[in-house]
Structure prediction request, 245 residues.
Amino acid sequence: MRRVLFQRWGLAIPSYTAMLYLGLVSGILAGNAAAHKGGLNAFRVWVATCLVIFVALIGARLLYVVCNWRFYRRNPKLIWRRGGEGLALYGGMLAFPLSLPLLAAMQLSWGAFWDVAVFTIVIAMLFTKIGCLLNGCCAGRPSNSWIAMNLPDGRGVWEKRIPSQLLELGWAVLLLAAGVELWGRLPFPGALFLCTTAAYAGGRLVLQWARERPLEAGRFGIQHGISLATLVISLAALAAYWPAK
Prediction:
């Protein structure tokens, strides 16, 4: 669609990178507002969020490389290239366990912090999906369905496709609306995070069918497996911590 958002003074700003940056900044601001409203130490939450995002971006890049290892094995110098696409959202989950010692050191509740982080994550996801659409990454599979649109893939090949980026964007909007509605109404810290994680994983498991897959890829891939595991773990944690009546 528009891989370069704009050019000024010889500098090209990639659409995906710009949307990722806008999403992270907007998400951090939303998380800061939620921290104030939730009675948390907003400065500590801000510092922890910035550190967690750094780890999450590394994890997201590593998972993307693993999912495309056949290419990166032949081009190892491109593993840490900057600009363009190259992140797999699920890799960001590396930050969840690694945040335990960080949040303990900063005297922040793990559950309360990640409830606030829901707004940071989902808002960042909204902008990133716009970046995916502009860049052509996470492209939908070719289709003659009534919802198909003339869209490119990451290689710039245009044809009628399922608009997977728009479907995932719509799901993120619903998750954000649900998060706002449920904020402060659930019975324990971390419940909002677990509910949102389970809902995202369930939706992603369904929407993964819309994405274009390499010819050699099977019907059930790494992303499906992570979605299923995330859904099961989140629901199990909710069941374990939900207060009995």
